[in-house]
């Protein structure tokens, strides 16, 4: 199921749409109208939107057209339609974190990430749907229904940035905001055949709720259909933020000529990948070797102790949500309307174990740094097995069943949330059902440019299909 058509968006990526608007081949208002028409066409099929503000999007598009006609520069992505994940504030719309516990109060102002994204000229059409508080690996809302993958409407779009990935893969949007606290950019990108890069922790700003826990796991980013869109997004936002803490991303426009030392593993701290996923990862290793890179098998950096600590911290975040929701969000917040998985995750939290777990998690980067002293990049599968059907991770199922199924599937992605390092998933493989199967590459802190250079090389060596009517050139 997709919305690609011969309109102002065509099958262009975000960079292509921006170029078309900047050259005045199309007007920004035409592009926004095309995106909204596509959104209406798939409403009720993907369940990917939380809420839209169509009048505001059209007003922003008209302002872009006026600016371009006047010869001023409204930003690299001027007029390109996008969506904001429902855990970041967007003026005039509620922020509900994918759940029913919130009052429907519109936010009085944009949050810091939305302000940053708007400064590139991109135009949010509204908020994309997510799993409740980003805690589950599939967005299956008990009242509103599940977010489905456009590749197969019987299968999950992943989570927590599920709506964002479904909209981009289906051609409604060229790119969309996502963020990642345990794999929530990379999981839905892998499921939906997209590029998903989790930047280094702290490179881009977070809304207040996401930066307050004792250990910050979340990083903002986007999901895209092309490496150049991801590279351009990071180039533009990194330059605006001017974060002097990390190596600048810079303008990465193609492969890096350096040949890399790559460590590969196919066992997560929660268990081994399925046999077909292991074989797919080995095929990617063979491709890398054919391109002149060196690939060695290594043990993954996330040990069983870190895996247990991450699960405990995950439970702690759920407990914090349940116990402080009214304090944070006001009297209209109702914990009884949270889903079963969130409540059970919170109830299973053991507070006495938390201080030691947080100390260990804060030290996890020492172990990955030892690996990066030998290897430039680490390769592993993004997910442990094929994309599950809707219902497999339904939050109303018995808690221990959902928890075990979750870690079996997403056990590879938390590594970089614990260490804060960057990682990118690329849709280089397919599973037995024809669904996209992501391969994940990690690098040391601040080394996004290395990942982008490798991603360009792999995109050229093994181009991945999209759901577009015709392939993107």
Explain this structure.
α2 runs antiparallel to α3 (54-69) and α10 (304-329) packs across α11. This protein is an alpha+beta fold and 473 residues long. 38% of the residues lie in helices and 16% in strands. It has helices at residues 14-22, 28-42, 54-69, 112-119, 162-169, 186-191, 208-211, 227-241, 275-290, 304-329, 340-347, 354-362, 365-372, 399-410, 414-419, 448-461; strands spanning 49-52, 81-85, 123-128, 140-141, 145-146, 148-149, 152-156, 175-180, 195-198, 219-224, 261-264, 267-268, 271-272, 294-297, 377-381, 423-430, 436-442. β4 (140-141) and β5 (145-146) form a beta hairpin. An 8-stranded mixed β-sheet has the order 8-10-9-16-17-15-11-14, with helices on both faces. The longest helix is centred in the C-terminal third of the chain and has 26 residues, at 304-329. It is globular. It has a single domain (14-461), classed as Amidase signature (AS) enzymes (Alpha-Beta Complex), CATH 3.90.1300.
By CATH, the architecture is named: Alpha-Beta Complex
Relative helix content: 25-40%
CATH-level-4 superfamily name: Amidase signature (AS) domain
Q: What fraction of residues sit in β-strands?
A: 15-25%
Radius of gyration of CA atoms, rounded to a whole number: 21 Å
- How would you state the average pLDDT, rounded? 95
Structural class: alpha+beta
How many helical elements? 16
Low-confidence stretches: 469-473
Quickly name the level 1 CATH class: Alpha Beta
Question: What is the number of independent domains?
Answer: 1
Widest sheet: strand ordering: 8-10-9-16-17-15-11-14
The tally of beta strands, per DSSP, is 17
Separation, N- and C-terminal Cα atoms: 21 Å
Largest sheet: 8 strands, mixed
């Amino acid at each position: 199921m997709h919305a690609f058509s011969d309109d102002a968006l065509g099958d262009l990526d975000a960079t292509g749409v921006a170029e078309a608007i900047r050259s005045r081949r199309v007007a920004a208002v035409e592009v926004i109208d095309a995106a909204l028409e596509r959104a209406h066409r798939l409403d009720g099929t993907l369940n990917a939107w939380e809420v839209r503000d169509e009048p505001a999007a059209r007003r922003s598009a008209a302002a872009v057209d006026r600016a371009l006609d006047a010869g001023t520069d409204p930003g690299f992505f001027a007029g390109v339609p996008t969506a904001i994940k429902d855990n970041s504030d967007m003026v005039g719309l509620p922020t509900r974190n994918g759940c029913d516990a919130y009052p429907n109060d519109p936010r009085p102002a944009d949050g810091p990430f939305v302000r940053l994204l708007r400064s590139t000229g991109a135009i949010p059409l509204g908020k994309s749907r997510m799993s409740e508080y980003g805690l589950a690996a599939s967005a299956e809302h008990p009242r509103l229904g599940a977010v489905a993958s456009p590749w197969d409407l019987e299968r999950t779009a992943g989570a927590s940035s599920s709506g964002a990935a479904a909209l981009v893969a289906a051609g409604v949007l060229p790119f969309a905001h996502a963020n990642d606290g345990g794999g929530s950019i990379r999981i839905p990108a892998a499921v939906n055949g997209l590029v998903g890069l989790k930047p280094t922790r702290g490179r881009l700003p977070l809304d207040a709720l996401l930066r307050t826990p004792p250990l910050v796991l979340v990083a903002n980013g986007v999901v895209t259909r092309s490496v150049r869109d991801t590279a351009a997004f990071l180039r533009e936002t990194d330059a605006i933020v001017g974060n002097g803490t990390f190596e600048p991303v810079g303008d990465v426009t193609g492969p890096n000529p350096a040949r890399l030392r790559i460590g590969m593993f196919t066992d997560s701290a929660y268990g081994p990948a399925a046999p077909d996923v292991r074989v797919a990862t080995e095929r990617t290793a063979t491709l890398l070797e054919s391109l002149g890179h060196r690939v060695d098998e290594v043990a993954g950096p996330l040990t069983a102790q870190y895996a247990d600590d991450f699960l405990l911290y995950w439970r702690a975040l759920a407990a914090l949500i349940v116990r402080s929701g009214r304090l944070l969000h006001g009297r209209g917040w109702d914990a009884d309307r949270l889903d079963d998985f969130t409540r059970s995750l919170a109830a299973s939290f053991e507070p006495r174990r938390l201080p030691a777990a947080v100390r260990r998690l804060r030290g996890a980067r020492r172990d990955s740094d030892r690996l990066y002293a030998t290897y430039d990049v680490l390769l592993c599968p993004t997910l442990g097995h094929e994309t599950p059907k809707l219902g497999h991770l339904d939050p109303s199922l018995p808690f221990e069943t959902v928890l075990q199924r979750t870690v079996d599937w997403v056990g590879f992605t938390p590594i970089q949330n614990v260490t804060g390092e960057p990682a990118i998933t690329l849709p280089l493989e397919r599973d037995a059902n024809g669904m996209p199967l992501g391969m994940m590459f990690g690098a040391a802190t601040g080394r996004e440019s290395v990942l982008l250079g490798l991603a360009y090389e792999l995109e050229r060596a093994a181009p991945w299909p999209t759901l577009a009517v015709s392939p993107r050139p």
